[in-house]
Hints:
By secondary structure, this protein is of the alpha+beta class. The chain has helices spanning about 1-25, 70-100, 105-120, 125-185, 190-205, 270-305, 355-365, 365-405, 410-445, and strands at about 35-45, 55-65, 210-215, 220-225, 235, 240, 240-245, 255-260, 260-265, 320, 330. Strand 5 (about 235) and strand 6 (about 240) form a beta hairpin.
Amino acid sequence: MSDMLSIAASGLRAYQTALTTVSENVANAGTAGYARRTTNVREVIAPATMHGWPTGLGVTVNGVSRAGDLHRSAEVRTATADLARSQTGVTWLQRIEESLSQNKLSDKLTAFFASAKAVAADPSSQPPRAAMLEAASSAAAAFSATGSALASALGDLDGSAGQQIGQLNALAASLAQVNSGLGRAMPGSSGAAALADERDRLLEAMSGITDLDVTLDTSGRALVRAGGASGPILVQGVDAGRVGYSRNDEGAVAFTLSLGFETTSFTPNGGALAGLGESAQRIAGAATQIAALAQSFAEGVNAVQAAGRDLDGNPGAPMFAIGDPASQLSLALADPRGIAAAAPAAGTRDASNLAGLDTLRTTARLEEGVGNLTASNGTALSARQSVVDAQTAIRDSAVSARDSIAGVNVDEEAVDLLRFQQAYQASSRVIQIARETLQSILDIR
Length: 445
């Protein structure tokens, strides 16, 4: 009779644990990063009796299993890193496009050269000369605004990099704490499963910032390398490194990782940091090209000015002042009479010197240069957006494949809930019958 009671009691304890696990699954069905749990129930068998037959002693809980697939989780991290890199690239390509197009630089250059033709048609008239200086001022302002917009984009990119690195360092520190917890947690416990969920959530968030190489030990603690399998260690046990960032004027970005007393450089191949590294060079390259076009424009116009004579017969003075960087142009000529339209000793009705501007326009290809830079960036943006679309589908597929194993199916949990509830009730009924039987025996005595 005591055996019956102990067997039924073991069933009550086991199926109560199983019901608790199912309840947790149902409650967390919509929780991101939650992996389904399963209570492992096994039969307890006593050694063989004197008759040679083993005797059952009930059931026991042999731990709580956490559903998951390390390979599929790694695929999600890889897809996340690839997608984040491309999405970051799209963000800053759009910023370059805005910088190049919002100031209508090409249109301002076209207007300047058109205004020179109006002066050539009537060299001694003041209104066309005033209009030409206004067009020159607008062109200089467009160069300056475009250069400033690109410089501002670089500054904002630095700020974004700082935020991403701050987040990565915080996530790494949190993962080190989770590693510490996993080292102390009892294997197969609900606590260990919850820590493993948090570990995987942190790893996925980190992979959106930089690509990772992850190795798990027998306790589930993660050893993480930044920048791939050959990169430096970011998290090891309870120790977490710190990532640093720097950029030079040419847009070259450098990342470092410090752990303990050692600092190592590394190159992210995925995640937002990789996208920021690429984008910094793109923005700096665009700024360099704009500065080169501005310098070519200003020096070319100033050279034409120097070759001619103004309305007062004086040698032409520079029309533009070149700043640092060269994209920072300003109008140096204030008097419309100072436009050197005439060739030396040709008189005020002559405008032959302005033909030099037509030559500059043809040879320097300033408008074409701005247009090509804008078109090249637009092509890169379109291509990268197509990559983002494809990588979004790849990541969605990877997440779906992972969740097909680790995710909670409410219908399946409902079936398990009913099954375990019936088993619990059956064990309760056995205890009740055993008690009633024992009481009947006692009453007979």
